[in-house]
Fold this sequence. Notes:
Number of helices: 10
Radius of gyration: 25 Å
Mean pLDDT: 88
Largest sheet: 5 strands, mixed
Order of helices and strands: HHEEEEHEHEHEEEHEHEHEEHH
Bound molecules: glutamic acid
Structural class: alpha/beta
Number of strands: 13
Amino acid sequence: MSLIQGVDMRSARRISTIAMAAVLTISAAAACGDDKKKDSSSGSGDKKTIELKAGSTMKKLADAKKVKVGVKFDQPGFGQKDPASGKVAGFDVEIAKLIAAEMGIPESGIEFVETVSKNREPFIQEGKVDFVVATYTINDKRKELVAFAGPYYTAHQDMMVKKGNPKGIKKVTDLDGKKVCSVKGSTSEKNLKEKAPQATPVLFEKYTECAEELRNDKVDAVTTDDVILGGLIDKAKDDFELVGDKFTDEPYGIGVKKEDTDFRNFINDVLEKSYTGGGWKTAYKETVGKFLSDVPEPPKVNRY
Ligand code: GLU
């Protein structure tokens, strides 16, 4: 009996030693995984690291640990600056953070610069920003001046009217003969001219200025992307409503210098990584997803 007990004691000790070793191995591996995650500091949700090619823009930015990003400052859900904290928040801001994180740049190393619709191309060309994430539709005309990674989201142009729709605007052609506010240098301005040529455009620098015009009955409607209007309506639900005539597709891209194909490809890699890793979905849910209930599937990246 005692012999059996002795054997049992020995095997029990051996088992516990093996078990202890296993625990140590597992925790060491976990710690190692954490470190790796911290190194690449990827918010994309995927631990795979993307190569920072020698001599490339991403390598230079990674070495400097600093990046300048053009975003909107007055578009709730995409890019909005809080005057009290000075912080900018929104889906575009989160996309910028994912890209910076892949270069090992912490949030404190990102300088957000306000870009309005009409200065996005010159800001990229003049190097005032390293890239732009600002509800920026990819199109051939803009591709003559800059290059685009993405798309990472597809919006649709729509219309915002006063609550109760007093002018009975149901489709884009109803804008003919009406005063319609939009923003200089936007696709919304161009599409308005094409789709409702009899409308009188009233043009500003920012969509918040258009919202004020509508509030004060100086215009009959505001037109731009549904998600931008959705953000403005979310802040003034008793004043405005969306018409719901999605009359264009607006694939949002990330603008970089025209010739910088390596940087464009790198950003496309980051986007795809955030699609598979779940980082894109989280970014969406925590920003624009708060007022748009469905989380869409991210669009397929176009490596043209
Ligand atoms: N997405 C459109 C554009 O890039 C309209 C929104 C905006 O002006 O940012 O022009």
